[in-house]
Amino acid sequence: MHGIIQRVFPPGSPQNLNKYQYEYMVLATGDGYAQVPLHHALKADDYGAPDEFSDEVLEAGQKVLVACLRDFSMPFILSAVRNSRKPTDAALGHHSRRRFNAIEVLVDKDKNYSVRSDSGPNVHVKTSSVILDDSAGERITLDRVAKVLTIESNELSVIVKGNASVQVTGNVKLSAAQVDADVKGDCTVKAAKLKADISGSAEISAGSKATVKAPLVDIGKGLAPVVTTLTHPVDYVTGIPIQGVPTVKAG
Questions:
Q1: Which range of residues forms the domain containing residue 107?
Q2: How confident is the prediction along the chain (251 residues), in pLDDT tens digits per residue?
Q3: Parallel, antiparallel, or unpaired: how do β-strands 75-80 and 35-43 relate?
Q4: Of 25, 104, 160, 198, which is most buried, counting CB atoms within 10 Å of its CB?
């Protein structure tokens, strides 16, 4: 028989007899178009195993197909009758499309899977990529073909409770308006070659001794040669040993 759900009784309702799953009152159409009220109807489950179930709560007004196991006192809702205002889209071809509570799940003819919410966020698992999109400008794209992970975000926050290790076998390019690095402990940088090109001023502040070890140190781009006690041990005019100064200012 087919019918229309009239009332819904959750397990905690006084009118729910089994206190275990939802019960429904269905007005069914029997032989000769007779209207038969079916009380305490249960929805059939897809699995029936101790640790597997399928909860899909129906609402009043939905059209359903009902069967009675023995008589009208044991009705079961087997499935529903399509009642959507939207006809099936023939252009989608071989596909599966389910909509529940403003969430739509689609598997298209090209074997792509997508989940869309009416509020905006959507997920796409395609044969070539995986896309997580909030429909408001933020997106994460994993390109399976190009092997590229792209994160588009207004702001990125990464919180690591323990240690973090990042290994890049290729090159790394960082472009930012401003970079602030706050290291509580030691900071070690190892490189075959280190170059800092600063268009403005540069400042290095050390709480204790700062040491620069190199066979050659260039300061001032040749504008003012730097004289040391090794290159110029004595004043060549007076013969007095030259004393080193605590600070050096080039230019």
A1: 92-152
A2: 999 999 999 999 999 999 999 999 999 998 888 999 999 999 999 998 999 999 999 999 999 999 998 888 899 999 999 988 889 999 999 999 999 999 999 999 999 999 999 999 999 999 999 999 999 999 999 999 999 999 999 999 999 999 999 999 999 999 999 999 888 888 898 889 988 888 888 888 888 888 888 877 776 665 566 667 777 777 777 878 877 666 655 54
A3: parallel
A4: 25
| CB proximity list for 183: less than 8 A, separation 6 or greater | none
**Nearest-angstrom CA–CA distance, 196 and 205:** 16
In the chain, the number of structural domains is: 2
Q: Is residue 57 part of a domain?
A: yes
Please check whether residues 55 and 116 belong to one and the same domain: no
- Cα separation, 41 vs 9, in Å, equals 10
Q: Are residues 61 and 8 in the same domain?
A: yes
185 belongs to a structural domain? no
